[in-house]
Amino acid sequence: MLLFSIISTGFKKINNLISNKQVFWDLETSGAGKKEHPKAFASTPKWEQILQIAAIVVDESLQPTNQNMNEFCRPRTSIIAQPGALLTTQQGIKESLQAKHSSYELISMINNKFEEWKKENDNLVFIGHNIVNFDSPVLEYNLFNNLYFPYIDRKSRGDTLNLSRAMYALNPSNIKTPLTAKGNPSFRLEKLAELNNLPVEFAHDAYSDVKTSIALTKFIHDSDLENWQQLSMTMNKEKAIEYVNSNKGFCYMTTFAGRIKLEALSVVCESSYSGWFNAFNLAYDPQPLLEANIEEFKTLIKKKNRYVITNQHPILLPGKLAINYEPYNDIGSKVLNERAKIVFKNKSLAEKFKHMEVDRQLEKIDESSQDNIFPESKANKFMEFGQQDVIKKFHDQKSWEEKYKTALSLRDPRAQFIAKRLIFDESPKTLSEEDFKMVHREMHDRLVVIQERPFTTIPEAMTQIDTEFSKLEDSDSETKQEKVEILNDYNKYLTFMEKYFSNKNSGPLPEGSKLSKHIFG
């Protein structure tokens, strides 16, 4: 079978109906994240707190149902927001402290509502704009830090950012995009909406962004019915796995530094992570890799391999599209087919990939700073805690006093610390004097001491405030005064928190809106 024959960019027309109900959702958070350690390739948002959640269930016609939520919560004492996040949402610390729900109350609502919707709808898809890289990790770690199972949005999830990029890759004229300073297309939700006449009520408000994401998905669906089924198919992990396992060659959409391109790949083997596949870029001759020893392979494979992660809504397209794009149009279908036949599930290459993965995992451990390893660093550790009956009992208890008693029976020290830190934020007076001082001391060492951390510290946030003030000096923004007030209030809050955590004799803080009055009067 010729996998890379010349064809037009369209696929065979198939059923274009959306087969499942979908939950469109979006978060507003305490920040954009940062690098976990200095040598990390990219930043991670997983340490940020959810401050707003919005979600709408839509039917098979992408019409909103009456199942929805739009809720806010107060910031946790133990998490420091980035000033830029407050300016983006235009919600200052005073307003945030007045929110109806505590963080634990909000996370519990999200967990219960998402589980309820999943039970009512088989194969429910969770979808939003840039959720794979941002919202989903934030949700996972917020659930984990509240002792809930973290992977609630698996195994079917989609990303409208991926859909938008795929539509552009197949036919740029189908979707209007602004350009970055480097001349690359930008896919920021509010700009896509503006240029393609989609509704935007208020940018960076979760509920408004959810409605815009629904409109964007309908726009993509209606504008490219011929390709929709292929673009949406890999929202389901099992279907994505089946696709890469049954196609010796396929196209994979990738992005780097704003550039979008299609790569012709062939899967060699599944990696040590379930659902992650080591694939080879057929733009290169695989023969030198077959002849190389393991050390030579590690050098030769650089920039020629790609991870295909099947639970992150990868855009996988028929291999025959490749010869419509560089450099595959010069290589030709005959050579591409020959390479795919050699590479696909090649046992020799698979062994070399597995050896390389072991070495890379050891390198990552060496590179990670020991200072950045905290009890809540890895959400997948939730499965190691055991005692799920005790964790369930913890959530079932009505009072924090009863929750605390239950938490003390947790044997895993990481789980017990997460529970005590949670109680420190939610009901600090409930803790024993010894446990209160333990968490208070830990928060001082995390948030006040000037040292590299994977999350925002008080000194960092204060420096960021100075930077934001400098930006505003030359600004003629209509909201300049409001932003100045937000920054002034937040600076006062940070000064208070710095003194609070620095005082070894500090007692429990007031809860809820009483804290705002305590700080601001």
Short structural description:
The chain has 22 helices and 10 strands. It has 521 residues and is α+β, with helices and mostly antiparallel strands.
Description:
The chain has 521 residues and is of the alpha+beta class. It contains 22 helices and 10 strands. The protein has helices spanning 83-89, 93-97, 103-120, 131-144, 160-170, 189-195, 206-223, 225-233, 237-246, 287-291, 294-300, 328-331, 333-343, 347-367, 382-385, 388-396, 400-407, 413-426, 433-447, 458-473, 480-502, 513-520; strands at 22-29, 50-58, 64-72, 125-128, 157-159, 250-256, 259-270, 276-281, 305-309, 316-318. The strands form 2 sheets. Strands 3-2-1-4-5 form a 5-stranded mixed β-sheet, with helices on both faces. Strand 6 (250-256) and strand 7 (259-270) form a beta hairpin. Helix 16 runs antiparallel to helix 17 and helix 18 (413-426) crosses helix 19. The chain starts with 21 loop residues before the first strand and ends with a helix. Residues 6-15 have low confidence and may be disordered.
